[in-house]
Amino acid sequence: xxxxxxxxxxxxxxxxxxxxxxxxxxxxxxxxxxxxxxxxxxxxxxxxxxxxxxxxxxxxxxxxxxxxxxxxxxxxxxxxxxxxxxxxxxxxxxxxxxxxxxxxxxxxxxxxxxxxxxxxxxxxxxxxxxxxxxxxxxxxxxxxxxxxxxxxxxxxxxxxxxxxxxxxxxxxxxxxxxxxxxxxxxxxxxxxxxxxxxxxxxxxxxxxxxxxxxxxxxxxxxxxxxxxxxxxxxxxxxxxxxxxxxxxxxxxxxxxxxxxxxxxxxxxxxxxxxxxxxxxxxxxxxxxxxxxxxxxxxxxxxxxxxxxxxxxxxxxxxxxxxxxxxxxxxxxxxxxxxxxxxxxxxxxxxxxxxxxxxxxxxxxxxxxxxxxxxxxxxxxxxxx
Length: 384
Ligand code: SOE
What we know:
33% of the residues lie in helices and 26% in strands.
């Protein structure tokens, strides 16, 4: 049966994330037909009329706006989806919450901890449903890792290790600002810490609980770049690479690395968790596979199992193809939409909420402060 209740979306931002989210809205009804709600692509907003009109035609939005405040003021929009550069997240979210709109915000929640705190306060005051697109949680193999850990199979956890490696900024001629807003600290808030490690931290907090304290180093390898807006050679304020280690509240040790200077790696997100009885590991380049080692297996047969996460019993998979046929990056966004729609039905929060994402922001802040001061930072000091 087709979903009867509408969730009218107003999406702001027509870049890479605007496309991933739009694809999620379009696909969800075909594969999750039993949901009570269905997204309606009511309006899309971007400053450039020609660009936003093309985007609306391509993705099937019913109307366009060039002013996000006008979009938020519309009565025919239920939820605002923020896909803008980070510098706009807080201002838009505060206005959307004040207008009583639900909010789906692209990660990271904000550029800074104070902005993130203001966003949490705003959605709590307004009582509006909210979520943050930390999409990797919703890949079936990552959700399966969560189920295995929660079942206690690993026993006491000793180690959590994660990497997010890219190589797209190893080019001194790459500009910052404008189209390359991720390179501009004023727009992004930070470099790999907020852009890539935030994903690793979100997954880690979800799988392994809170982080108590951190010790970090960051590096900016190329110190000056031309700024797209001013045309001037300007100091680069973002971290190109960040390494940190930490203590989790459960007593385990964490080791994290992210860089955009690892030649040969485009988006190598990996994690490995070592417990008393068993270990698991996962790699975004082979995203339908979860590796599992259990020391309790008979010694003659003991070894890493390579679980191809495509079975109908695996998370989300009953909605897709037959066993053996895998999913891709885009499905994590379809799943996020499905879970958000489900949360409307059940009236449960859709995690990660703004409040959950605030914990990630606190760890990111502790990491950046630790690197700046060359000292351990207790994440508890960032609690309001
Ligand atoms: C950066 O290159 C980026 O696109 C991030 O912004 C995304 O969050 C990450 O999933 C892939 O890499």
